[in-house]
Amino acid sequence: MRRGQFCPSRVTEVTVDISLKGKSLQETVAHEGSHVGDDIDFLTSYNFGTGKYDPAANFTHGQTEFDAFQTGAGVTREHGFGPHDDQKILDFLHNSPTYGPILNVPGFDPNDPNYPQ
C-alpha cells in the first residue's frame, strides 16, 4: 500500500498508512489534504442552474500532484526537494512511472456522466 492514496470520488476518500509517525505522517496528511482541497474546489463548483460542474475548477493529475508534493515538502524534504524546488518536483513527477503517464489526465473525467462539465 502507498503511504497515502488519493481517490477522487463523490465522497472524497483518503487512506493513510497507520504505521506512519512523526514528520512522515505530517507530510502525508499535508499531501493528501491538498488533494482533498482540490476535490472540494471542483465538487463545490456545481451549478444547480446548468446541472454542470465548472470545467475551470477541474484539475489535471499533474496539477494536483505538483501542489500536493509542494505542500508536503513544506513539512519535510522526504522526497528530496523543498516547497520552492519547482523544477525538482516537476522532474520527480515526469520521471515517475506512477505520475508521468497521467500528468495531463483530468482529475474528474469530463465524459463521466456523474461529473458533467
How many H/I helical runs?
3
Number of domains: 1
Radius of gyration equals 15 Å
- Please outline the major beta sheet: 2 strands, antiparallel
Tertiary shape: globular
Compute the number of strand runs: 2
Biggest sheet strand line-up: 1-2
pLDDT below 50 for ≥5 consecutive residues: which ranges?
1-9
Q: What pattern of helices and strands is seen along the backbone?
A: EEHHH
Q: Would you kindly provide a written description of the structure presented here, covering whatever features stand out?
A:
The structure is a single chain. With 117 residues, the protein is mainly alpha-helical. The chain has one domain. It is 38% helix and 7% strand. The protein contains 3 helices and 2 strands, in the order E-E-H-H-H. Strands 1-2 form a two-stranded antiparallel sheet. A hairpin with a 5-residue loop joins strand 1 and strand 2. Helix 1 (22-43) packs antiparallel against helix 2 (61-73).
Task: Give the topology.
Elements: E1 4-7, E2 13-16, H1 22-43, H2 61-73, H3 86-95
Helix pairs in contact: 1-2, 2-3
Give the structure's gist in a few sentences.
With 117 residues, this protein is mainly α. It has helices at 22-43, 61-73, 86-95; strands spanning 4-7, 13-16.
Characteristic key phrases:
single chain, 117 residues, mainly alpha, two-stranded antiparallel sheet, 3 helices, 2 strands, globular, disordered N terminus
